[in-house]
Amino acid sequence: MRHGETNWNRENRIQGGVDIPLNERGKEQARDIALRLTHTVIRYIYSSRLSRALETAIEIAKFHKLEVLTDSRLDELRQGKWEGMKVSEDHILKNTCVLILWGSTGI
C-alpha cells in the first residue's frame, strides 16, 4: 500500500529516494488505514527504509502487534537531479515519458 501524504506530495514534488517524513495529514491517513485494517489478518509487514513508508507501516503494525521488516529493495527509485523538483517544471514537462509514468496508476 502507498504511504501517507508528505509535504512534497502536497507540493507535487518528485521525492524519489529523498527521505521525506509524513506531514500531519499523512499521519492521520496512516492511523485511518491502520484502524480500517484492524480486523484484517496480517502476518507480516514489510516496508522500505524511507520514513514516509516506515511511519505508515508502523501505525498498521501497532494494531497487529507485529514488527515491521524493512528491506532496501522496497526503497523508492532514485530520480537523480529531478528529486525535489516540481512536476510542472519545464525540463520535466518536456519529457512525455516521465509524465505518463507519473500519472499512471498501473505502475
Automatic annotation (TrEMBL):
Cellular component per GO, a single term: cytosol
InterPro entries per record: His_Pase_superF_clade-1 (IPR013078), His_PPase_superfam (IPR029033), Phosphoglycerate_Mutase (IPR051695)
GO molecular function: fructose-2,6-bisphosphate 2-phosphatase activity
Keywords recorded for this protein, A-Z: Hydrolase
Gene Ontology biological-process entries: negative regulation of glycolytic process; regulation of pentose-phosphate shunt
SMART domains named among the record's database cross-references: PGAM (SM00855)
Cell membrane in keyword set: no
Name of this protein: Phosphoglycerate mutase (2,3-diphosphoglycerate-dependent)
Species name: marine sediment metagenome
